[in-house]
């Protein structure tokens, strides 16, 4: 790629065409040139100065209203082109055109897609423009052009308004369809109840949006699903304890793609209720249906603290709530809330959130590389960068001997 050097005598400057001051002027000039082309009448040898004049001449002198023919036979752009070429090729009479019935049309052949007249201006105008041309009354006086231009502008504005209204109706229909699909497929009442306490429910609006938006993207779910140690641990536990899940009602809090819900269904659960607030729930719907588990798994979009489940109590709660630094995802309070409200008296929670072990690990080198590094960067202080670095979680697999303190139990 060549770069401009500022030299007025550069060779490239000679090859660059001079640009017009206004693209609108260029288009206007092209349109005016097209309008000024002479047009040969379809039904006689008379030459007219514009498409508009030719259309009015055919109507006044031959009794043939071309736009009316287009409307009568419901011609699209291709049908209109075929009709024009047919008339010019066969030199048919006005009477034969007017006698054409609504049956098979004489020009209904691809052979008439070939222009009968080179650069025919009638073929350079679409059906809508043809109707506008018919409404125009030409006059040599310049003052008469103003009403014509205003009329065209109003017609263009009307078309734009109709298009906007159609788009608005389509968007409204799409929204209604989305709600209908959610009601039919989810098969659950997703109406929100009064706001209830909980870590997720107490997030500020901007934090709330960022949190759930992050889980609406496929990449984070791909990362979690590819964590074979974690995912297979859930799967193996459920498959090896089918007697625990058989004929039970299971609640999956923060279901994501629905992988745990499907494990539970395959393990024999009678009903699985999967809840997630992020947009990934819509992919989960497709996933569940693709695996023919929609009769067992019910998916609900919303926060567990703000929705009403279609059952009073559940037998088991499952959740992949453990995040970076164990509690990073703020899901624990939501699981505890679900336990207190929905879990049956003898119900179970997996994994057990009543006994959580948290081990502290220190890494002086890692601290120096990621945190202390910003205290002196080539002789400059960049400590403000710590604000962005510290909240980021670093996930690594550690060897058992790295643990330097006794686990503390959180209840």
Automatic annotation (TrEMBL):
Residues 146-180 form a coiled coil. Residues 41-62 form the C2H2-type domain. Its main location: cytoplasm. Keywords: Coiled coil, Cytoplasm, Metal-binding, Methyltransferase, S-adenosyl-L-methionine, Transferase, Zinc, Zinc-finger. It is an enzyme of class 2 (transferase). It is found in: Cytoplasm, Cytosol. Gene3D superfamilies: Hnrnp arginine n-methyltransferase1 (2.70.160.11), Vaccinia Virus protein VP39 (3.40.50.150). Transmembrane segments: none annotated. It catalyses: L-arginyl-[protein] + 2 S-adenosyl-L-methionine = N(omega),N(omega)-dimethyl-L-arginyl-[protein] + 2 S-adenosyl-L-homocysteine + 2 H(+); L-arginyl-[protein] + S-adenosyl-L-methionine = N(omega)-methyl-L-arginyl-[protein] + S-adenosyl-L-homocysteine + H(+). PROSITE patterns: SAM_MT_PRMT, ZINC_FINGER_C2H2_1. Residues 1-32 are annotated as: Disordered. Its EC number is 2.1.1.319. Residues 8-26 have a biased composition (Acidic residues). InterPro entries: ANM3-like_C2H2_Zf (IPR049482), Arg_MeTrfase (IPR025799), Methyltransf_25 (IPR041698), PRMT_dom (IPR055135), SAM-dependent_MTases_sf (IPR029063), Znf_C2H2_sf (IPR036236), Znf_C2H2_type (IPR013087). It comes from the Eukaryota. Pfam families: ANM3_C2H2_Zf, Methyltransf_25, PRMT_C. CDD domains: AdoMet_MTases (cd02440). This is type I protein arginine methyltransferase. It comes from Cirrhinus molitorella (mud carp).
């Amino acid at each position: 790629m060549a770069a401009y050097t500022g030299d007025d005598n550069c060779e490239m400057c000679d090859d660059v065409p001079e640009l017009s001051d206004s693209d609108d002027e260029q288009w206007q000039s092209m349109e005016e040139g097209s309008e000024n082309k002479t047009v040969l009448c379809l039904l006689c040898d008379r030459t007219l100065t514009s498409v508009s004049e030719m259309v009015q001449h055919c109507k006044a002198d031959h009794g043939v209203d071309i736009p009316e023919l287009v409307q009568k036979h419901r011609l699209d752009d291709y049908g209109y082109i075929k009709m024009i070429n047919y008339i010019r090729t066969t030199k048919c009479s006005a009477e034969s055109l007017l006698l054409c019935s609504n049956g098979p049309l004489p020009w209904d052949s691809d052979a008439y897609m070939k222009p009968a007249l080179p650069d025919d201006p009638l073929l350079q105008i679409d059906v809508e423009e043809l109707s506008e041309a018919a409404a125009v009354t030409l006059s040599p006086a310049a003052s008469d052009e103003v009403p014509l231009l205003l009329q065209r502008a109003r017609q263009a504005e009307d078309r734009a308004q109709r298009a906007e209204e159609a788009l608005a109706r389509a968007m409204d229909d799409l929204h209604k369809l989305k709600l209908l699909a959610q009601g039919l497929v989810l098969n659950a009442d997703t109406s929100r109840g009064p706001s209830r306490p909980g870590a997720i429910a107490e997030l500020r609006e901007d934090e709330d949006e960022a949190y759930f938006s992050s889980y609406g993207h496929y990449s984070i779910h791909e990362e979690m699903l590819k964590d074979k140690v974690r995912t297979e641990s859930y799967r193996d536990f459920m498959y090896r304890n089918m007697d625990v899940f058989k004929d039970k009602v299971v609640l999956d809090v923060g279901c994501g793609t629905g992988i745990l819900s499907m494990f539970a269904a395959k393990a024999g659960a009678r009903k699985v209720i999967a809840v997630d607030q992020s947009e990934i729930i819509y992919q989960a719907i497709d996933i569940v249906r693709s695996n023919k588990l929609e009769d067992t798994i019910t998916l609900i979009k919303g926060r567990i603290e703000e929705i009403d489940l279609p059952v009073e109590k559940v037998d088991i709660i499952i959740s992949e709530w453990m995040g970076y630094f164990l509690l990073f995802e703020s899901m624990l309070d939501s699981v505890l809330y679900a336990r207190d409200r929905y879990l049956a008296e003898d119900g179970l929670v997996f994994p057990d959130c009543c006994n959580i072990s948290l081990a502290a690990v220190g890494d002086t080198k890692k601290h120096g590389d990621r945190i202390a590094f910003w205290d002196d960067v080539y002789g400059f202080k960049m400590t403000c960068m710590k604000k962005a670095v510290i909240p980021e979680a670093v996930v690594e697999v550690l060897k058992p001997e790295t643990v330097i303190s006794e686990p503390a139990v959180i209840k």
